[in-house]
Amino acid sequence: MLDIIRNPVVISVILMCVLCLLKLNVLLVLIISSMVGGIAAGMPIDQTMTIFMNGMAGNSETALSYILLGAIAVGIARTGLMSILSDGMQRVFEGKKLLFIAVIAGISSLSGTIIPVNIAFMPILIPPLIYMMNRMKIDRRAVACALCWGNRAPYLFLPVGYGLIFHHLIAGNMTKYGMPMETMEIWKAMIFPAGIGMLLGLLFAVLVLYRKPREYKEIIIAGADAGNKAEGKNVLNRRHIGAILAALSTFIIQLIFNSLVIGGLVGLLIMVVTGCFKYSELDETINSGIAMIGWISFIMLAASGFSEVIVATHGIENLVAVSANVLSASKFIASAVLILIGFTIVMGTGTCFGTVPILSAIYVPMCMTLGYTALGTASLIGVAAAVGDVCSPASDGTLGPTSGLNPDGQHDHIWDSTVPAVLVFSLPLFVIGVVTSAVL
């Protein structure tokens, strides 16, 4: 037990959680936790920071793509297209709290599957709806859970969009480390923990935990209703059509080249050519995009650096070695311990995609020794990645909802996005994941 407490990975992750709950800036939390983890492993501070800085390159493409998508989001907002959509939603859903949250969850579910734009839609669509949410006294924590569920749960168990990439990643790494697995078989391992478990968590959040009305101050949100007043309310015009064309082009180009950066660049240029905003406003649009969503990019860069430091400490191997005797007791105990180990890794990195190779390298040889089936092993890898990802303060699954729900400064990232995700998603994922991986 003492060896586990002294483990640098455990120390850094616990420190990260504590500092986040104390509302220290997440970017600073990741840097401090990395330094403490490195020191705990006996690494010099300068070496730790070198590893951290080099590791930031791991998420550089994602970070750049988010900045470009943020600029597109600002451009679309300035055309008033999202205001037209939000006005329509307000007419339909005014006073219909549960239906509104259900539709938000449905829209969010498209972002990782049919229309894989990830969290880019959240800072565009949600802010214009804040006034209506305030009038209906909707607890934004319920909406945060709906956004997180839609952005994560579907692709965890459906091999579509990001889900196809995620499932292929699990199957490919399992095969690489000696346990052959087909991509189209992974959904069988994830349907119960992610499909049923997370849905139960969402229902608990909306119908029980965050059901009561919550009051918010009426604060003017800059740009939330911009566009329509100047262009004519609910009337599609040339700028709106250009924005739609840019969004579709971003999606198509991303699929063709498998690159959000190229897709975002093309979409941004189309917006300039079609007159969504003037060429002279390009710098301002990009700067506004950085201001709106760039903070997510910097946190993801820091999370990638944190991940590299964790690997360099060799604390993961030591954690598995210390747990070896416990793992041999029973499959249920082994599954619980392995998922917790995976949780500590993914909690800090904030990405299930980036940690699947690490988890596979640890889990596959051990699962083969313990007698797990291929589906059981796939469930372990997928659930361990998901449990940490849905409730990490550095995950875009929690960062995205905050970017949309906090335009007026009344939605705290840790207490209103991250903690609710921990409460309603991590427990059912963990419990059902333990059972599923042990019995498959």
From TrEMBL:
Record's bilayer topology term: Multi-pass membrane protein
Putative Na+/H+ antiporter N-terminal domain segment(s): 7-90
Chief location bin: membrane
Ranges of residues in domain Na+/H+ antiporter NhaC-like C-terminal: 148-433
Keywords annotated in UniProt: Cell membrane, Membrane, Transmembrane, Transmembrane helix
Cell membrane keyword on record: yes
Membrane-spanning parts: 12-42, 63-86, 98-131, 152-170, 190-210, 243-270, 290-311, 332-356, 362-387, 419-439
Protein name (record): Na+/H+ antiporter NhaC
Lineage of producing organism: Bacteria, Bacillati, Bacillota, Clostridia, Lachnospirales
